[in-house]
Recover the amino acids of this structure.
């Protein structure tokens, strides 16, 4: 079995690039072009569909990025799963849960969620993706999201615990005995190699470290839960599956925390002479 590429969700990539870009203009389209190239990667050109109550944002990813980078903005990505909304506003919970990801944005015109729908086409040897972003208005989300996912420091601590939990669950599954190919791939994923993602220049190294660790954990969980061949009975299968779901939950929330805007430094107060 080949070692899987580390997956950086499109919403995470878009959130990081939207945070990085300064105001875009027709005279200098290069920043938006870099965002589009990084987020689309090998996909077909992404399309955008906005709800009727949203301001004009165009129908392409470039037009959406230009609209949202024209002024100040707050951006984060959220990676929900069934039973774990992970900070997604309830008005778009069903759509974001089905997609497994979304981008949350606040601008001068309001707060929005951008939710990707991904359609695969082609063969296993040459697979392509059609991506459509659905943009909808949402209530203010920033305070709730911070309360749900915590800080980057919290994420790092939780990831360390999740790695220990994953190691125990995989040992209990005895993956090496009944799926040696998966065991080899899991061992390779534990390395600290460069994930090869196209991120904005100057992205904080701590963010990258958290994102890479979380992506490795998610890939390990996917490999370990492909089937329950090592389980002796259904109870064991459920116990191990539950443990690995908690690992994936920690990884998803860590990815979201890595996209949260850095807190502003506290002002130092003092009296002047």
């Amino acid at each position: 079995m080949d070692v899987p590429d580390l997956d950086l969700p499109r919403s995470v990539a878009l959130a990081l690039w939207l945070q990085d870009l300064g105001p875009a203009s027709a005279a200098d389209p290069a920043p938006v072009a870099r965002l589009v190239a990084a987020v689309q990667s090998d996909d077909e050109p992404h399309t955008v569909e906005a709800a009727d109550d949203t301001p004009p944002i165009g129908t392409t990813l470039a037009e959406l990025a230009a609209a949202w980078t024209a002024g100040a903005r707050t951006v984060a990505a959220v990676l929900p799963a069934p039973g774990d909304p992970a900070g997604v506003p309830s008005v778009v919970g069903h759509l974001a849960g089905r997609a497994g990801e979304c981008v949350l944005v606040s601008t001068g015109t309001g707060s929005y969620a951008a939710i990707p729908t991904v359609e695969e086409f082609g063969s296993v040897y040459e697979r392509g993706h059609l991506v459509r972003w659905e943009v909808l208005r949402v209530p203010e989300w920033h305070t709730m999201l911070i309360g749900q996912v915590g800080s980057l420091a919290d994420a790092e601590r939780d990831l360390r615990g999740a790695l220990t939990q994953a190691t125990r669950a995989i040992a209990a599954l005895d993956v090496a005995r009944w799926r040696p190919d998966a065991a080899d791939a899991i061992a390779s994923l534990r390395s600290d190699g460069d994930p090869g993602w196209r991120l904005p220049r100057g992205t904080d190294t701590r963010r990258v470290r958290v994102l890479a660790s979380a992506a490795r954990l998610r890939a390990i969980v996917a490999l370990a839960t492909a089937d329950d061949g090592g389980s002796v009975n259904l109870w064991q299968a459920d116990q191990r599956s539950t443990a690995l779901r908690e690992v994936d939950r920690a990884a998803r929330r860590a990815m979201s925390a890595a996209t949260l805007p850095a807190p502003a430094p506290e002002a130092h107060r003092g009296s002047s002479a």
Observations:
- The chain has ten helices and five strands.
